[in-house]
Amino acid sequence: MRAWLVWAAGLLAYVVAVLDRTTLGVSGLDAAARFHASPSVLSTFVVLQVVVYAAAQVPAGVLLDRFGSRALIASGAALMAGGQLLLATTEILPLAIAARAIVGLGDALTFISVLRLVPHWFPAPRVPLLTQLTGICGQLGQVLSALPFLALLTSTSWTVAYTSVAAFGVLALAMALALVKDTPHGPAVVSEQLSPREVLSSVTTVWLRPGTRLGFFTHMGTQFSVTVFCLAWGVPYLTVAQGRSASTAGAVLSISVLTAIVSGILIGVLTGRYPQRRSWIVLTIMASNAVAWTVVLALPGRAPLGLLIALVVVISVGGPGSMVGFDFARTFNPSATLGTAQGMVNMGGFIASLLVMQAMGVVLGAAGGYSFDSFRLAWTVQYAIWAFAVAGILITRKKTRALLRVEQERALLETFDPHAH
């Protein structure tokens, strides 16, 4: 029972992190009006948060390996609550941008810290499924932003809505301090303090493992489309370009979460049963994303609601699909550097997301603002990321398999000759 309480407290912090991450996506038009921001400025507004998140992943992983989950989850919750409270009260654009950067930093500390709790508190056979469930259930934060937060924003005010979100961060902080424990036996084992040069050498070693890079490109190619849709441009696209109401847009985004729950369980089962086929599962998800967007963007006019729902369902599989990247990190890295490896993997999707968000903002601005034609053109920037990620997966998969063969041959040789090197 204690294990489930620890996991639930960590999961609450991640739900709040996803809520904080996605609030600006559903309130983008309100933000543009409040801060007098053009599409390109609003894009930068969102992108900065993701830049901070992505840039903080490796340092967060190093800190996680050293200080454990409890300290980082609590710190992340405190940062996010402070950032959202600042955003709730300011009308000055530079302060609002700084607030989103603070939220991004707190968000960066949370997810990999919650993931790190799972192998400490649960038996090994349960770890893959609970890892998927952590990612899936955390997306309930997106439901909170798409429905109650958006409803509160439209019925009250910006300040009330964002202050309420900050209150959830305070709750997550209190629950983390009260319930989260690194391991059943106390704090996580703290490794000996390393010099900056030794830390850099360790980080470099982790990155040079082809399995780590395979996880990075997996996360990159699967996650960015749904992230960009939910975090930045989905609601404006559905309401302005596709002519749907705000409530319909919120409901469509909620379908994304339901899809993630179902597909995440399926992906968890498939990757556990067929570990040698994980990369093919990932490539299939990426291909389906590209096909779905091609069908929608090829239409000369607005898409039927059913097709828009189908699009969101297909791209939402990319969220659970990106979790396969963490499975690669766990498979090909020792536990002592797992936090660092997970941080590197988590960078992939968010680097891709920020590039696409920024590029879309530039395209929208150059094409004359929010319109059907400008959004249609802007979404095409996704194809460059898919091509790059597919190439990265194919290259690193080949190197990973070659390394595995060498290790298997060495193990076989040592079985027959224990003194062989």
Automatic annotation (TrEMBL):
<feature type="transmembrane region" description="Helical">
    <location>
        <begin position="350"/>
        <end position="371"/>
    </location>
</feature>
<protein>
    <submittedName>
        <fullName>MFS transporter</fullName>
    </submittedName>
</protein>
<dbReference type="GO" id="GO:0005886">
    <property type="term" value="C:plasma membrane"/>
</dbReference>
<keyword id="KW-0812">Transmembrane</keyword>
<dbReference type="GO" id="GO:0061513">
    <property type="term" value="F:glucose 6-phosphate:phosphate antiporter activity"/>
</dbReference>
<feature type="transmembrane region" description="Helical">
    <location>
        <begin position="214"/>
        <end position="235"/>
    </location>
</feature>
<dbReference type="InterPro" id="IPR020846">
    <property type="entry name" value="MFS_dom"/>
</dbReference>
<feature type="domain" description="Major facilitator superfamily (MFS) profile">
    <location>
        <begin position="6"/>
        <end position="401"/>
    </location>
</feature>
<dbReference type="Pfam" id="PF07690">
    <property type="entry name" value="MFS_1"/>
</dbReference>
<feature type="transmembrane region" description="Helical">
    <location>
        <begin position="71"/>
        <end position="89"/>
    </location>
</feature>
<dbReference type="InterPro" id="IPR011701">
    <property type="entry name" value="MFS"/>
</dbReference>
<feature type="transmembrane region" description="Helical">
    <location>
        <begin position="305"/>
        <end position="329"/>
    </location>
</feature>
<feature type="transmembrane region" description="Helical">
    <location>
        <begin position="280"/>
        <end position="299"/>
    </location>
</feature>
<feature type="transmembrane region" description="Helical">
    <location>
        <begin position="377"/>
        <end position="395"/>
    </location>
</feature>
<feature type="transmembrane region" description="Helical">
    <location>
        <begin position="41"/>
        <end position="64"/>
    </location>
</feature>
<keyword id="KW-1133">Transmembrane helix</keyword>
<dbReference type="InterPro" id="IPR051337">
    <property type="entry name" value="OPA_Antiporter"/>
</dbReference>
<feature type="transmembrane region" description="Helical">
    <location>
        <begin position="159"/>
        <end position="180"/>
    </location>
</feature>
<dbReference type="InterPro" id="IPR036259">
    <property type="entry name" value="MFS_trans_sf"/>
</dbReference>
<keyword id="KW-0472">Membrane</keyword>
<dbReference type="GO" id="GO:0035435">
    <property type="term" value="P:phosphate ion transmembrane transport"/>
</dbReference>
<feature type="transmembrane region" description="Helical">
    <location>
        <begin position="247"/>
        <end position="268"/>
    </location>
</feature>
